[in-house]
Automatic annotation (TrEMBL):
This is GDP-mannose 4,6-dehydratase. It comes from Methanothermobacter tenebrarum. Residues 5-311 form the NAD(P)-binding domain. PANTHER family: GDP-MANNOSE 4,6 DEHYDRATASE, GDP-MANNOSE 4,6-DEHYDRATASE. The keyword Membrane does not apply.
């Protein structure tokens, strides 16, 4: 039986990947960090919490990562943990550099010392291309990061390549474009919208405050994307791959389609609020996944319209169950209104 160690198992991708690998017959280990309140809702929601071996570790403590390798003795490491919210990286730039950037080296060093035969997946990101593009992006497109998060991810990208070339470690960068799901964190724009639309449709809320509606993103479906991570590590040679849908849409279109789904007019509920604008934003992203298709046989299954449906229907279903008094693991009821939280530097 193969063993996999997943960092970031409590996040969106970690939970879906764990489910996928369990179904493939893997023994799955995941690192979690000690928090004052347990944070396993996604694993419980997918019904896999009892099938996972949890190891306490933190990315800023490299010895805990080495210990996690010793305990799990994995064939494959999927390094997904990060401070993953671009907006927060402007507020916690140094912390993001350490957690999202330098910790990739800690993990690779731990692998090099413990067992360099372990295969390594790095959760790289389309954010490394940054702002200023209007062309479809592939593995050879130039990088110009536009946030502390993106700069940290670019560091992680290069250190992964350096360990591949210098030490012959089977290390791959998955350059994943945005991917979403009903397990997406509530601060990301798609889930913020689908959750608000569900509440507005049920009369629990009336308005939705957003930032840059003109930003374009290539949005895919997270369960499709975690399969690509696994497929990269099964190929004969390690490489870097763009994972995307090849379609791009504005935040405005995402909004419009979500409100359409419940028969409402988005313009009656959505207001632009400067507090949700970033100091610099990435205005266009669209990915070309030809290499992934040709080399590892990966293609996206769920595209934009279906993604919208999946997300709005699931948030609607959850709030309806909640109104009927049902209790089940789910994030939204405990999530404060975002206007209470915002302190970030606003674009003037
Ligand atoms: P999430 O924010 O949902 O999950 C992040 C995970 O990292 C959580 O499990 C979190 O733990 C963990 N984590 C954060 N800080 C630490 C730390 N100091 N020590 C240990 N664990 C930590 O992200 P996603 O699942 O969406 O993304 C997975 C990865 O892919 C991330 O690296 C992200 O940057 C990258 N990525 C994501 C894309 C997307 O569209 N989703 C696209 C491209 C790249 P906790 O639950 O305790 O907070
Ligand atoms: P992104 O995702 O920054 O692309 O990073 P996010 O959903 O946060 O933003 C997408 C775009 O929407 C605009 N936007 C808003 N964003 C948020 N969060 N809240 C708002 O109210 C709002 N209004 C407009 C943003 O300005 C931006 O242009 C995600 C993360 O998962 C990263 O970890 C990952 O690397 C990249 O995707 C690929």
């Amino acid at each position: 039986m193969k063993r996999a160690l997943i960092t970031g198992i409590t996040g969106q991708d970690g939970a879906y990947l764990a489910k996928f690998l369990i179904e493939k017959g893997y023994e799955v280990y995941g690192i979690y960090r000690r928090l004052s309140t347990p944070n396993f809702w996604r694993l419980q929601y997918l019904g896999i919490f009892d099938k996972i071996n949890l190891i306490s570790a933190d990315l800023i403590d490299e010895f805990s990562l080495l210990e996690a390798l010793k305990i799990s003795d994995p064939d494959e490491v999927y390094h997904l943990a990060a401070q993953s919210f671009v907006g927060a990286s402007f507020e916690q730039a140094v912390g993001t550099a350490q957690v999202t950037g330098v910790a990739v080296t800690s993990m690779l060093e731990a692998i090099r010392h413990y067992n360099p035969e372990i295969k390594f997946y790095q959760a790289s990101s389309s954010e490394i291309y940054g702002d200023g593009h209007d062309e479809i992006l592939n593995e050879n497109s130039p990088f110009k990061p536009s946030s502390p998060y993106a700069a940290a991810k670019l560091y992680g990208y290069w250190i992964t390549r350096i360990y591949r070339e210098a030490y012959d470690i089977f290390a791959c960068n998955g350059i994943l474009f945005n991917h979403e799901s009903p397990l997406r964190g509530l601060e990301f724009v798609t889930r913020k919208i689908s959750n608000a639309v569900a509440k507005i449709a049920l009369g629990l809320e009336n308005r939705l405050l957003l930032g840059n509606l003109d930003a374009k993103r290539d949005w895919g479906y997270a369960p499709d994307y975690v399969e690509a991570m696994y497929m990269m590590l099964q190929h004969e040679v390690p490489d870097d791959y763009v994972i995307a849908t090849g379609e791009t849409h504005t935040v405005r279109e995402f909004c419009e389609r979500c409100f359409d789904e419940v028969g409402l007019d988005w313009q009656e509920h959505v207001k632009v609020d400067k507090r949700f604008m970033r100091p610099i934003d990435v205005n266009f992203l669209c990915g070309d996944y030809t290499r992934a298709k040709e080399k590892i046989g990966w293609e996206p299954r769920v595209k934009f319209d279906e993604l919208v449906k999946i997300m709005v229907r699931e948030d609607l279903n959850r709030w309806e169950r909640w109104q009927n008094g049902e209790k089940f693991p789910w994030d939204a009821p405990n999530h404060p209104n975002e206007t209470k939280l915002i302190t970030r530097t606003v674009r003037s």
